[in-house]
Amino acid sequence: MSVDTCERRRATAAACRRRSAPGFTLLEVIVALAIAALALVGMFQAAGGGLFAADAAGRVEEAIERAQSHLAAFGRAGAIAAGDQDGDDGGGFHWRLHASPLAVGPPIQGRSNLATTLFDVEVTISWRAGGRERSVVLVSRRFSTAAGSP
Q: Tens digits of per-residue pLDDT, 8-43?
């Protein structure tokens, strides 16, 4: 209310000051709080999504390292043979290794009992995350020289 209105109605000076005092109404405060709450919800959702993505990327990186380790160890303990191997890798990871012959080469010159075989080797590391089965697959090829019949 303006001062002129107050004078026309012959209101007291205190009542005029109370009505024209600067500040926010209750409605304006409620609207401002609602907007701030919506902004906070959006920020928390974005932060939560970022944390989930960082965790997922870390699990994929760990799975790749585990698969590389299994590939590196394959064939070191003995001759490479076709077949499947699998096991629990700890930390919620499961591994599976599949080896199949692709080609058999001619015997090595001067050693008729040795044959060279090219194997297709596939390592799969799987785990559960977010209620779904996730996996990483690495494929490699390895040569093996095995003794055959003379």
A: 555 565 555 555 567 889 999 999 999 999 999 989
Q: What is the pTM of this model?
A: 0.63
Are 144 and 116 spatial neighbours (Cβ–Cβ below 8 Å)?
yes
Domains in the chain: how many in total?
Answer: 1
Running DSSP on this structure, what letter comes out for residue 115?
Answer: E
Q: Where are the alpha helices (DSSP H) in 3-140?
A: 3-9, 13-19, 26-73
Alpha helices in 74-145 (DSSP H): none
* Chain centroid, CA 18 distance in Å: 59
Q: For residue 55, what are the domain limits?
A: 3-147
Three-class SS of residue 150? coil
d(CA 107, CA 123): 29
CA distance 74 to 85: 10
User: Distances in Å between the alpha carbon of 23 and those of 26, 36, 68, 107?
Assistant: 10, 19, 66, 96
Q: How far apart are CA 63 and CA 126, in angstroms?
A: 8
Rounded CA-CA distance 135/69 in Å is 16
Residue type, 103: A
Whole-number Å distance between alpha carbons of 130 and 124: 19
